[in-house]
Amino acid sequence: MTVTFTAAHRPPVGYAVSCGCDEATARAPRYGAWRDAQDAADRANTAADARRPLPGCATPETCPEYPLYAEEVDPDGRVPDVTVSSINAVGVLEALGVSLAAEPDAVESEALEGGMPLEAPEDGVVVPIAVVDACGELPVEDFRARVLTALGLAPEDPGVPGIQLGRTYVGGRPAGYLQRRLQDLYALADWCAAHGRDVAWY
């Protein structure tokens, strides 16, 4: 699971039939209603002939194997986003001074140390996976100020190794990860400020 930071939603100016690739979406014909776009996508997906890559498709070798779908067209065009895993979102949100929607259960918190289980039960293995119910929105100047504060105050992220438990792997993060994500979020805030948009995450 992931948490995505991006510009606050605005009503779309139209809809496009897309494979999801940015350039393909930019070049796609526009429809005034979502239903019209989805109907066009359904016709393409159920056609007898194999689907060809859309103009501008970034991965023409694999995209035709997946269905097309109706996608909103934002009034500002391609909107940037920053996506982090749920387990890394905890640290990013804490650095920004944002409270999570739900505090982790105290019993579960005591059972983990640095992301590792302190003791495995007799009948199995504890797999530490963070589940974050995080969504919110802030005025762009407030968000940008939080990012600047975090960049100035947060200690250098030493990173966390991944964890292999049997056939289950829980990814870690490389050294300096938090600082790089904060820089990405600052760039996102700059874009939002230039386009008069607040910052949202979900």
How would you describe the overall organization of this protein?
The protein has 202 residues and is of the alpha+beta class. The chain is 32% helix and 19% strand. The protein contains 6 helices and 11 strands. The strands form 4 sheets. It has a 4-stranded antiparallel β-sheet. A 3-stranded antiparallel β-sheet has the order 3-2-4. Helix 5 (140-153) runs antiparallel to helix 6 (177-194). The chain starts with a strand and ends with a strand.
Layout of helices and strands:
Blueprint lengths: L1 E6 L6 E5 L3 H6 L2 E2 L2 H12 L23 E5 L7 E5 H10 L10 H5 L1 E2 L2 E2 L18 E3 L1 H14 L9 E3 L2 E3 L6 H18 L4 E3 L1
Antiparallel strand pairs: 1-5, 1-11, 2-3, 2-4, 6-7, 8-11, 9-10
Helix pairs in contact: 5-6
